[in-house]
Design brief:
Strand 1 and strand 2 form a beta hairpin. This protein is mainly alpha-helical. The chain is built from four helices and two strands; from the N terminus they run H-H-E-E-H-H.
């Protein structure tokens, strides 16, 4: 787990969720939120979120990702997580 302010992150997640009507993105955001709570290995390098996936692959997620969902043009939790962390960082600075 990163050293996050839970309350700030909760707000960021809620806003992101309410901002979209796209069910797939909402699911991606939900997955990302769970991931951010449970995955201890998720450093943000200033540009992208580095995510070790359940299948032990390392994704560098920002506007793009290297996972299957992205390959098929679908929203993925990795990109959602990257966006959440970026928003969170903007707010914290
Ligand atoms: Zn992905």
């Amino acid at each position: 787990m990163m050293n996050l302010n839970q309350e700030t992150m909760r707000q960021v997640i809620e806003e992101a969720f309410n901002k979209t009507n796209n069910l797939r993105w909402q699911m991606a955001i939900t997955r990302a939120a769970q991931e951010l709570e449970s995955n201890p290995f998720m450093p943000y390098d200033g540009h992208a979120l580095i995510i070790l996936s359940e299948s032990n692959e390392v994704y560098s997620a920002n506007g793009t990702c290297q996972c299957r969902a992205y390959e098929f043009g679908k929203p993925c939790g990795h990109r959602a997580a990257a966006r959440l962390v970026a928003r969170y960082n903007e707010r914290s600075n």
